[in-house]
Structures are given as structure tokens and as C-alpha cells.
UniProtKB/TrEMBL annotation:
<dbReference type="InterPro" id="IPR029026">
    <property type="entry name" value="tRNA_m1G_MTases_N"/>
</dbReference>
<dbReference type="GO" id="GO:0006396">
    <property type="term" value="P:RNA processing"/>
</dbReference>
<dbReference type="InterPro" id="IPR051259">
    <property type="entry name" value="rRNA_Methyltransferase"/>
</dbReference>
<dbReference type="GO" id="GO:0005737">
    <property type="term" value="C:cytoplasm"/>
</dbReference>
<dbReference type="InterPro" id="IPR001537">
    <property type="entry name" value="SpoU_MeTrfase"/>
</dbReference>
<dbReference type="InterPro" id="IPR013123">
    <property type="entry name" value="SpoU_subst-bd"/>
</dbReference>
<dbReference type="InterPro" id="IPR053888">
    <property type="entry name" value="MRM3-like_sub_bind"/>
</dbReference>
<dbReference type="GO" id="GO:0032259">
    <property type="term" value="P:methylation"/>
</dbReference>
<dbReference type="InterPro" id="IPR029028">
    <property type="entry name" value="Alpha/beta_knot_MTases"/>
</dbReference>
<comment type="similarity">
    <text>Belongs to the class IV-like SAM-binding methyltransferase superfamily. RNA methyltransferase TrmH family.</text>
</comment>
<protein>
    <submittedName>
        <fullName>RNA methyltransferase, TrmH family</fullName>
    </submittedName>
</protein>
<dbReference type="GO" id="GO:0003723">
    <property type="term" value="F:RNA binding"/>
</dbReference>
<dbReference type="GO" id="GO:0008173">
    <property type="term" value="F:RNA methyltransferase activity"/>
</dbReference>
<dbReference type="Pfam" id="PF22435">
    <property type="entry name" value="MRM3-like_sub_bind"/>
</dbReference>
<feature type="domain" description="RNA 2-O ribose methyltransferase substrate binding">
    <location>
        <begin position="31"/>
        <end position="104"/>
    </location>
</feature>
<keyword id="KW-0489">Methyltransferase</keyword>
<dbReference type="Pfam" id="PF00588">
    <property type="entry name" value="SpoU_methylase"/>
</dbReference>
Amino acid sequence: MQQISSVNNATVKKLAKLKQKKYRDEENSYLIEGFHLFDEAIKAGKKYQYLLGTEEALDKAESDYDVDLSGKNVILINKAIARHLSSTKNSQEIFMVLKIDQPKEFPFNYGKWVLLDNLADPGNVGTIIRTADAAGFDGVVLSPESADLYNPKTQRAMQGSQFHIDLIKRDLADVITDFQDVAIPVYASMLDKKAKQLQDFAKVPQLALIIGNEAHGVSSTIASLCDEKLYIPIKGKAESLNAAVAAGIMIYHFA
């Protein structure tokens, strides 16, 4: 086990930068924080590049999670470093650095999927992924301009669901073609009363469900490629639903 006591340590500086997308992309790594995500990563068999924690946190990792602390990639840190690395107000002082593992090729030929068309809010992205996981969907595809999957806010909203289902960043037009080539229907959620109402759709064994950007909805280009457009009726005076709430309603309609 290594021990680091200064926030000015080169390794600490390098890992702190992983809170920014630019450096996550450069290093092909990301930082997770807290015992819940730590536990989910361990259960999923993830190999960590670094495990960092205060003495109390590492003792808990060893006693409660049976983690071997003898490796060189385990680092004992102090509370000042924990605060420096943390993205939360009340850190549990345990951190893990994982490799970003995006598949270069993926066969979109089965199951139920959610496609995110340029969703901007990391909390919405994480919540939708968690909901898709809870409903038994097989995966979520994020367009290149959607909020970063490895953003700390996205990580907290997912609550470990990133370790349970397939999460892939791809151009949605290509993915829609892949689904349609194997007869998987693609439905776009639209804020358009001319679209078919959600209750008019029966459950199907496989589908791809597109959720659009919070401000602009599903783009016209992507909508034009879909097999059907659906609409959640608004019964009150609210103009629209939050993207994650709308996604949850639709996901469970088809679950």
C-alpha cells in the first residue's frame, strides 16, 4: 500500500483532474466515489487502476467488502486529499479509478433499449439509465452530444446501474438503422399532439425508445428516421414533463 499526504502530490493532481471530461478523455479513466458505487464495481468484477481512501475508509473496505489492501495501486490518503478529490459535500472518503471501456463494435440486435438524443443534464441521463436498469431494459445508447456518462453527477444519479446494463455512446442515426435492419421498432417520444398517444401502443418484446433533449426534444433528423412517434398526454396545465420523468413513464409502459 502506498501512502500520500499532500494534495500537491503528482498522482493526486492527476486523479483530481478526472473530475473534468477533458482529462477523462485524455486518460481514458474516470473516478467513482462512495461505498455504494465502490461496492457495485466490486460486485461487477471491475479491475481498478487505483483504490484510494482514508485509514477509516480503507479499514471498512477490508472488513466489510473483503478487499485486499496489499497492492501497490491501493493508496492511503488523508482527509484533506479526500476533500480535494471529492465531488460531494459529505465524502465517504473512498475512491476508485476505473478504465473507460467503450466497445468499438456492438451488435444492436436484441432487447429493449433507450436512446438519448443530446440530453444535456447529467442528472437526467443518470436517472434514465437507472430507470432503464430497474425496468429490465438491456441498455442505453447516448448520442455523442449527450451529457458525459462519466460525469460525477451522472455517476451519482446512476447509483451503480452503469455496471448492470450496456451503456454505449454512438451516432443515433447509425444505431437506428442497426435496429431497423433486424426488425426492432424505433419509437420517438415527441411533444406533439399529432403523434400517437402512449396508451395506443402495446408492449412489444423488443424496441428502441428515443428520449429527446430537455429544451428541444428529439431532433427532426432523428425523428424522421423512426418507425413511430408517441406522445404522453398532458392533462393539466403544465407545458411538458421533465425528460427523466417522461422517460420513466414510457420505459415502464413497455417494460
